[in-house]
From TrEMBL:
InterPro entries: Ig-like_dom, Ig-like_dom_sf, Ig-like_fold, Ig_sub, Ig_sub2. Residues 34-118 form the Ig-like domain. Pfam families: Ig_3. CDD domains: Ig. This is FCRL2 protein. Gene3D superfamilies: Immunoglobulins. It comes from Emberiza fucata. It comes from the Eukaryota.
Amino acid sequence: LQLHHSGRYMCGGQVVSQWRESELVTVTVHRVPPSGVSLSVQPPGGQVALGDRLVLSCTVASGTGPLSFSWHREGSGAPLGTSPRLELRHAGDNDSGQYWCRVSNRDSVAESDPLNVTVL
């Protein structure tokens, strides 16, 4: 189902030699709120050497879209990214901290648990 399938429906058919129609039924399609938002990290454990690459991935167990993603770090104001994946190509001293992703489908928002990243 898609949101545009909402509407009023009826069916009709021939019974013996007479055309018959059902009552109208209203169908409303709703978005399923995002849930089960989780993070994974490479390298595992969230510990990365200074200057190395760190990749965070955000997955959603259920929810209908379109889904939008945003990445956040403790103490950082603006979102760090807007895709399901956040890549820090050269991890720096300032990249340590707690990270989480936020997922929205315009009707509702869900967040992952924070993940602690340590730059060694």
